[in-house]
Amino acid sequence: MNTYHKNNTVSTMRTGWTILELIFILIVIGILAAIAVSKLTATRDDAKLSVDVSNMNVCIRSVAAHYTATGVMDINIAPCNGINCYTIDIDGSNMNVGINTSAPNYCDDIENVGGHLIHNYQFAGTSIQR
Question: What are the transmembrane regions (predicted)?
Fold first, then answer.
């Protein structure tokens, strides 16, 4: 497209983007993508940690219910399978829940999120003592 100035000179308007502008746009998009991916990873790790804490809570209750019903301590029940952030040790009627030191990276914050479950649970008769 040609435009005419007062002194009758013709200047051509540029159409399109320069390489420098395109590179700048790509850099901005790359920075935004990096921020989004890191937030997505953090959210996914938080969700995995929450699932593990919830599963451990269900495991403790299921073991207690199983012990109360049968008098047998058994952690080989469905809710106790696949728990990564905790360790479970059985000694008679005691169930000791601890932190798994060789757990995946998302378990690093387990003491702050699910530390309330780390105890020695004593099962006896029809009640649970902590």
Answer: 16-38
User: Which uninterrupted H or E stretch holds 120?
Assistant: strand 120-124
Identify whether the C-beta of residue 53 lies closer than 8 Å to the C-beta of residue 113: yes
Q: Count, in order, helices (H) and strands (E) of the chain.
A: 2, 6
Burial letters 28-63, b for 16+ CB under 10 A, else e: eeeeeeeeeeeeeeeeebeebbeebbebbeebbebb
| 117 CB-contact burial (10 Å; exposed 0-12 / middle 13-18 / buried 19+) | middle
Check pLDDT > 60 for residue 1. no
Segment (H or E) for 35 = helix 19-70
Whether residue 70 is predicted with pLDDT greater than 70 in this model: the reply is yes
- DSSP-derived letter for residue 13 is P
Q: Which helix (H) or strand (E) holds 3?
A: strand 2-4
Position 69 confidence tier, pLDDT thresholds 50, 70, 90: confident
The CA distance from 117 to 61, in Å, is: 11
Tokens standing for 71?
A: 């008098």
